[in-house]
Write a structure and sequence with these properties.
It contains five helices and 22 strands. It has 343 residues and is an alpha+beta fold. Strand 5 and strand 6 form a beta hairpin. It starts with a helix and ends in a 6-residue tail after the last helix.
Length: 343
């Protein structure tokens, strides 16, 4: 009897070991495939149209001999995006102006978005003392253009760049994107950065549309190229946030010789849990880059950063008080903001 009991225990042990060996161990040993991306470092241009009309500031209306501002009094603020007037959809500043002229005498209801929430405001425009035209007291914009640096391109020719969003220069608000075109860019010159005065890459659109822009997010802009551009840095695996460490890195960018080149730098103060676009500090050490630009300048946002043979992220900002130093974003943060996953 005891012998039979021992045999049954032995049988259960053998079955248990079989399950561990065949099912559990292979699963535990399996690892998620590490994405590989084409490294950017080339400039790109953007022409975009906003989704609605973006409020960027105020302009008081001289009426009755004193400055007044109906929009400000009604609660509208820079960064708000107006999408309807009296229930009618508007797409640009011209349509907004026409509705104000048409309905201004009886009052206007603006429908707008603020930080993702839909709101309403009512106001009556005032006639300007100088010409009698009805005015609300708002500065608005409905389109724009600029240049930045491509961070990565996928096998399917989708790309990410900038490492931060396209924001309005006056209000600092993320611009709501309706549609955008990606343009080829030729860098024609640059202004060197100095303490208190950020430098800038100066370029012009050099080709017809070479792609489309589909997303504007706090962690970068995203779109797709019609054809993959030449990328001399090649293809590299990404590094996950927990693998990024203080120490030497290189960054890729294109200056006024219009040739992507690799420059040395160092990163520090790595915040492994950071979710935004300021995840670590980057300090330029390359003598050639420092002599040319003074460090990080506008237009270099999105420059890919390489460490230990892996793409770890991109340059995002420069410190106004020290142009040799700025911030960078984890590549994981950029990828998590893409609408279409890599897989």
């Amino acid at each position: 009897m005891r012998s039979n009991k021992i045999k049954r225990i032995g049988s259960f042990l053998l079955i248990f070991l079989f399950i561990i060996t065949v099912l559990i161990l292979p699963t535990a040993g399996a690892t998620k495939e590490r994405p590989c991306l084409f490294v950017g470092g080339i400039p790109f241009g953007v022409r975009f149209v906003t989704d609605g009309v973006l409020v960027v500031g105020y302009c008081d209306v001289p009426c009755g001999g004193k400055p007044q501002n109906p929009a400000k009094a009604a609660g509208l603020c820079p960064g708000d995006c107006i999408y309807q007037v009296n229930g009618k959809e508007i797409k640009n500043a011209a349509e907004l102006s026409a509705e104000i002229t048409k309905n201004g005498q009886t009052g206007i209801e603006f429908s707008y978005r603020r930080e993702g929430q839909e709101r309403n405001a009512q106001l009556v425009p005032l006639p300007c003392d100088s010409d009698g035209k009805l005015r609300t007291g708002l500065f608005v914009r409905d389109s724009g253009a600029g240049i930045g640096t491509v961070t990565f391109v996928t096998d399917h020719n989708t790309f990410g760049g900038l490492g931060h969003g396209i924001c309005d220069g006056e209000s600092g608000a993320l611009i709501p994107l309706s549609r955008g075109s990606v343009m080829g860019v030729t860098i024609g010159g640059l202004s060197r950065g100095a303490v208190g005065s950020p430098g800038e890459l100066k370029g012009h659109f050099s080709a017809d549309r070479i792609g489309v822009l589909t997303q504007n997010t706090p962690c970068g802009v995203f779109g797709s190229f019609t054809d993959r551009p030449a990328l001399p840095a090649g293809k590299l695996p990404i590094a996950y946030r927990n693998e990024v460490h203080d120490g030497a890195v290189t960054l890729w960018c294109t200056l006024d010789d219009n040739t992507p080149r690799e420059y040395t730098a160092e990163i520090s103060c790595v915040h492994h849990t950071a979710q935004g676009n300021k995840c670590f500090t980057i300090h330029v050490t390359d003598k050639e880059l420092l002599a040319k630009t003074g460090g990080i300048i506008q237009g270099m946002s999105g420059s890919p950063i390489i460490q230990d043979g892996h793409l770890i992220g991109a340059v995002t900002h420069v410190l106004i008080g020290d142009p040799t130093t700025g911030y960078g974003i984890f590549i994981e943060n950029m990828l998590s903001n893409m609408a279409v996953p890599l897989s």
